Amino acid sequence: MTPALTAPATSELRSRAEHLLAALGATRPEPGPLTVRTPITGGELASLRPSSSAAIDDAITKASNAFQSWRTVPAPQRAAVVRRLGQLLTEHIGELGELVTLEAGKIGAEARGEVQEMIDICEFAVGLSRQLYGRTMPSERPGHRLMETWHPLGVVGVLSAFNFPVAVWSWNTAIALVCGDTVVWKPSETTPLTALACHTLLRRAAVEVGADPDIHQLVQGAVEVGEQLVDDERVALVSATGSVRMGRAVGPRVAARFGRCLLELGGNNAAVVTPSADLELATRGVVFAAAGTAGQRCTSLRRLIAHADVVGPLLNRIEKAYHQLRVGNPLDDGVLVGPLINQRAYRSMQDAIARAVDDGGELLCGAERVMVTGENSHYVRPAIVRMPAQTAVVREETFAPILYVLTYHDLDSAIALHNGVPQGLSSAIFTGDQREAERFLAADGSDCGIANVNIGTSGAEIGGAFGGEKHTGGGRESGSDSWKTYMRRATNTVNYSPDLPLAQGIQFG
């Protein structure tokens, strides 16, 4: 059994949050109607005033005006802001990481890891600033050169979610800034303090390298704040991370004004375990992906599809590991699973498990609540539910630590099960057979934006493009050539001859 849980008083956490904000150079927000609760105790961490409609309009105006000059700054010079931001994040990784824990409930290692991811994307973006390459193509006309160039797009609106309160912002912002865009950020209303800290650090970085701090704006509040960003024609790109329901609302509204949209929505990620798999390796990959961050990653493992020959011994290993997971105060050493973000998440988990059992599922372990300080904190042991089939509840994403276990007999049926959900973010196969691995990665294999072999579904690196297909939205952030989303392409033809030949050999005149 897990040792008895402890948690500090909310007043201690509130004082700690104020200290951390001061250490990060941020001014304590003016109290207001927007309540910030810490999932550690469920108590009030702070309150602040949401941005008014006029303040949001002013932020977009400032970002739009700053873009007029920022776009003409050479990209390697723009990178100076991002380089300095990375340095400041390195200096303050401890303070910002702890603030993430206070607001989002992540354990210390994961919170610091998220800040490290921010540092990594800053390094990537600085290098990218010298690699915004266009192509030169052969022209069919003599004395002509055909090429493409990439130019800054405009104001980028970033709507981020609570589960990665700072990393996802940095994926977008670091790339957007070196591409010559300016940014208006609307964070989750659940995690406004970490946003305030990041905004402060970025504006400090801009001032210290002689750049206009108005290249970044922060607006705070609930859904109506995001809606104003979504509907404003001056926002050239809306990058939105959240639920499929949110994406269904955002996408059409941006499209109606012919803006661009980058959607990172739900994931219902699965891992296939074949008879040739290393079961110890698979167990480690499954447990971290399913239980890490209390199942509140978009890449969390939701479905385990195991071959009939190995499902028994594999489940024995996973259940044993689950019983050893320490659930508790994320500020305590040795804790591996922190709290759910709020009561809605807890109810969603319990409702999903009840539906799964009604569908014939068997709850093997977990799901019980661990009380810490009262009704507003929600610590739950990660659950494993063995299912007879992929029912409706299994096909839905529940943002909580539930692992549904399904059995298969041949790889084709495993891939069909894997792909038989609306979402298409991350996927994995554990196998010792190269043919099985290649089959999973082939065009008729996994239909996800991320497909892994012998590694779990979570823990993506910033060097690769991050995103998914189907109801996940199709967007790509972070590495590879995701930068192209933040720029506009121009095709250029240069005639350096004294003649004016027409394309396709057309004669006119």
From TrEMBL:
Gene3D superfamilies found in the cross-reference section: Aldehyde Dehydrogenase, Chain A, domain 1, Aldehyde Dehydrogenase, Chain A, domain 2
Gene Ontology MF terms: aldehyde dehydrogenase (NAD+) activity
Alphabetically ordered keywords of this record: NAD, Oxidoreductase
CDD domains cross-referenced by the UniProt entry: ALDH_F7_AASADH
Signal peptide: none
InterPro entries reported for this sequence: Ald_DH/histidinol_DH, Ald_DH_C, Ald_DH_CS_GLU, Ald_DH_N, Aldehyde_DH_dom, ALDH7A1-like
Tree of life domain: Bacteria
PROSITE patterns attached to this UniProt entry: ALDEHYDE_DEHYDR_GLU
Uppermost EC category: oxidoreductase
Quaternary organization: Homotetramer.
Family note: Belongs to the aldehyde dehydrogenase family.
Name under which the protein is recorded: aldehyde dehydrogenase (NAD(+))
Species per Swiss-Prot/TrEMBL record: Nocardia mexicana
